[in-house]
Design goal:
The structure is a single chain. About 35% of the residues lie in helices and about 15% in strands. With about 180 residues, the chain is α/β, with parallel strands linked by helices. It has a single domain, classed as 3-Layer(aba) Sandwich (Rossmann fold). It is globular.
Length: about 180
Amino acid sequence: MTEETRRPLLMLDVDCPLNPFAARWPRRPRGYRTHRMLPPSYAARREAAGRDVRPLRVRLNAAHGKRLLGLGYDLVWATTWAAEANEYIGPPLGLPRLPVVEWPEKIVPELDGLLFKTRHVVEWAAGRPFAWVDDALTARERRFVGAHHPGPALLHHVDARFGLREDDFATLARWAREQAQQR
């Protein structure tokens, strides 16, 4: 196994960690720029529901791409943006094309209240150590991952008002270093 395949995965949600969508409008956290984006899947959903199709306001901090790449992880999109993250989110951040955790075409809420992404993230990781940043992570997801994932995992909640901050990057870097020491 090469050094590259032994690095932990970093499962990235877009809306919150990278796009602090809950920040008070028109304020945005320092370092963020607002982009107008109209992904085809979003436009199709709005159109099918008979709603106005307007571009999304997406706030991104271009410095985050380089920082994420330097953390010692293999980055993976774990977002409802799905493959569109490679077209719309990656380029402004300076990220290369990343692998994508694919979701079922129709997202159905889990009966036990588990975040719909959780089972798919665990399956995609296939036992490999992973960190996951998302604003919807709770104790329920942590229990599920602990019971169903044989490797180490860090589920890190990020506040949707602020996106990734210094303490979040420090936590992710520390965890990646700990995983490297255990190899």
